[in-house]
Amino acid sequence: MLNKIKTIFNDLLKSKIEKIPSIYNSFSTTERVIFYILLIIFSLSSIFLYKNINDRFLVQIPVKGGSIAEGVIGSPRFINPILATSKADQDLSTLIYSGLLKSTPSGKLVTDLAESYEISEDRYVYTFKLKDDLKFHDGEKITTEDIEFTINATQDNIIKSPKRANWDGVDVKRLNDKEIQFILPQPYSPFLENLTLGILPKHIWGEISSEQFVFSEFNIEPIGSGPYKIKKIKKSSSGILENYSLEAFKNYVLGEAYISELIIKFYPNEEALINAFNKNNVQNINSISPNKIKDLELDKNDEILSSPLPRIFGIFFNQNENPVFTNKEVRLALSRAINKKQIINEVLYNYGVSIDSPVPSNSTFYIPNSDESNKGIDSAKEILKENGWALNEDGILEKLTRKSTTLLSFSISTANTPELKATAELIKLRWEELGAQVQLKIYEIGDLNQNVIRPRQYDSILFGEVIGRDMDLFAFWHSSQRNDPGLNISMYTNITVDNLLEEIRITDNTDEQKIKFEKFQKEIFEDVPAIFLYSPHFIYINSKNTKNNFIKQITIPSERFLDINNWYIKTDKIWKIFL
Fold first, then answer.
1. This prediction's pTM
2. In this structure, what are the phi and psi dihedrals at residue 495, rounded to the nearest 5 degrees?
3. pLDDT tens digits for range 278-289
4. How do residues 317-348 score in pLDDT, each as one tens digit?
5. Per DSSP, what are the bridge partners of residue 235?
6. How far is the CA of 61 from the CAs of 50, 303, 357, 572, 577, in angstroms?
7. Does an H or E element contain 418, and which?
8. Interatomic CA distance for residues 317 and 519, integer angstroms
């Protein structure tokens, strides 16, 4: 029997196929069964071998195509890079516009519309050269006239751009259609970050007066040069914006995006957004409150991406408003009494990190505060006792001197948001356990900003600082920024800190900056003008069908789109040799 089977395979090799039927017919039933078994084994082995060869030599590559819907809270009003303030505005501005430079998910600045740039030796003059064949979504050519117009509009006092401070005192000089210079009033090391500003088309906006700028329909129907352009705008019967259908811009300077269509849908609140996600009306959503994660109906194609935001949430003391905070031992004891891990666990559901510095903990300039090792109620009580504080008959700590009695009594002001309210309540309980008399004052965010923060009417305030990618802390800690519109809400004054912040701004040497940041932080640790609590995570619910989406260094939610031209849904396989 085996000899007959060998004969068949020999005949196959010798191309004598015509003999196979006669040989096969001579098989007994048993021989035929064995033949089929061997044939199956041979076939399976061949398939397995073929698959192994394919797996070894084939690679998966992204291809163009596919569509995804992203849900956001709020409706856009200014899809305009020099006016955008809301999250919806910023999201769409990031998708539709491009600047001379752009940030990558890793935080590195790369060229976008710019081909190259040079910085003068004295660091006063920045010269940029544009790439060839740049186009807006309507096909019009991009030149330095558009760059000049955008910066002038940003500086316009009538338009009142939120970006205006970034360009204060900067002169713009066009050299030709492709080269442009920016002349600074003084060296400013973070200046390159300003060049990520999206560029407006002058041929559209140049005909609109400054007074009419914020009313233009192009704030809702924008034309830019970014990775996506508007395909369709859908409104409700009452004229409310429901969604934008965007299509990949074929002439995008960094390459046409892989995902062909991106639909941005708008929802009035978090509940509506979560409901839309659970019904699969949108595949991706962001900025969900940690306590709402449990309400999401996730499936195997969904993943939760998160990354610490460079936001410094803390308690900031106003020593001018309440003299009790002029006692350093009080500020230090209050800091030691707080249980930050409890806040991270119970308020942020572990979507956050505890912090102990005004510098974000994921920054290369961050150094730890050695006093954090002395945390705890007992340590806090001890330091107050050593400095003459004792409980009175009402159970409140007080300090007696010959001239007066100081009661450890003060208020905490904060915004009416779930996280801040819950954090304030936990802190209040800890400080009352310590022996302080604490009153909570909760405000709506608009009221807090206008009537509490701006006039500095608070004893202490639980609030957050948004630290930019440029790591410029001048506005938050320099003494010149104590009053509105400055952001020094601790009313902090320290001449050494002032000098360090000024020096950091004018040096571009990273090693020098690191030394100065270390000195700056040590001054803050010594003075305790605030208690640094936590940095929340940016939370992004991403469909696994959306690939190559990396959430790394995010400063604001719209930066999740920084690398969107490299996201993809569709894939194909090719042999490595063809790559």
1. 0.85
2. -65, -35
3. 999 999 999 899
4. 999 999 999 999 999 999 999 999 999 999 99
5. 241
6. 20, 22, 43, 5, 13
7. helix 418-434
8. 21
